[in-house]
Write a structure and sequence with these properties.
With 155 residues, the chain is mainly beta. The protein has one domain: Immunoglobulin-like (Sandwich), CATH 2.60.40. It is 0% helix and 52% strand. It is built from no helices and 11 strands. A 5-stranded antiparallel sheet has the order 3-2-4-11-6, with no helix packed on it. Strand 2 and strand 3 form a beta hairpin. The chain starts with 8 loop residues before the first strand and ends with a strand.
Length: 155
Amino acid sequence: MKKLMLTMLLSSFASAALAAPNVSLDAKAEVDVEKEIAGVKQIVRIVADDVSPGQEVIYTLTYTNSGDEPANDLELKNPVSQNFHYVNGSAWGEGSEIQFSADGGKTFAAAEQLTVNINGKTQKAATSDYTNVLWKIKTINAGDTGNVGFKAKLN
């Protein structure tokens, strides 16, 4: 079993004289498991304390702007944990531009444009090459809350 490490970076570039945005971030790493509830088997989502090889983890970042002004041009970054690989097509984030990195978060590009250099040859990055996920959010209005996330599978 592997213990999960979840690291996030939230950067906000907004300014105001008296009023200001106040963006907070809550991060979760969870797994779906089958449980019997009142005699019925159901899939429930629980905290991912221990994960087995091949198991998918759902990483969810919930953001809230509790300030009284919009927060503009935010970037939420989340690494793909060591010994995990990104699950193809699993990133979500309504109203956000999603990009990926294959170099530890130094550069980002859309999935179809992301490349890696292998033995001197540039080629399209495989999802197993992804090291980070980036969500670019234009505006989070005062009082708004949203979610972004992705799935990764333990190798």
